[in-house]
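Q: What structure does this chain adopt?
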Amino acid sequence: MQAVRRFAEVLHPRPAPSGIDIACGLRHFAIITYAFDPARFAGVMPPRFRLDTVEIAGRERALLSVVPFLDVDFTSAVHPFPRFRMGQTNYRVYIVDQDTGERCVWFIGTTLDSWTLMVPRHLWNLPWHPGTIRFDCQQDEAGNYLQYAMDTQATWAPARVALDSKRTNPISLPGFPDAESGLVYLTHPLRGFYHRRDGKLGTYHVWHDRLDVAAGRLRHAEFALLDCLGLVDLAEQQHPHSVLVDPLAKFTIYLPPKRCE
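A:
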């Protein structure tokens, strides 16, 4: 059973950026989460990590999120630099680093719509893949999404999702003692681990303040990667654990990512 958690326990000032660290705004930032049988993820991670499971309707469940967004004002956090704009979709599973006790994510990979893909993919061996990503979103004056549609054409992880949101709707997060505990879990992991493209273990670190998320409602989803990996099939994808949307999330990304020895 997940314990009560509070943002006051995890929020902290932004570590000063340096070198090649990046600042960016993530527009149309959505967290589409699925609960699935932990056995489906057996053997993926090194023994150092375990799934950070929840109990839903008397059954143990792992959680994973698909996180699409549009990078805007992607630039150096330190120096004057050109600004880039690109679509991106991340796939992550919630875990615990048993060496440190830190709650993190296992980063399955990302699809990026930009020529800049060559840097993370080839220089740092990150599991990033090319794709063409298009957003079609409409919001009202209150920030509600009347329409949120994302389409990804890609070989590795083609995807399509449609949803809407309303800021006055209550946020319901099964498996947690209250909404804030669930929001800390889903929105505030700042460190991730992954298998690099060379098979070695890698890690990355980001910072952001508390996200201003609203409850969303899924209309339709097709995440081919989740079906291909046997984690969440296409029928199950129509019934998410939760949908959260933030119109503009501001992140700092600390680079370069590191290889774990």
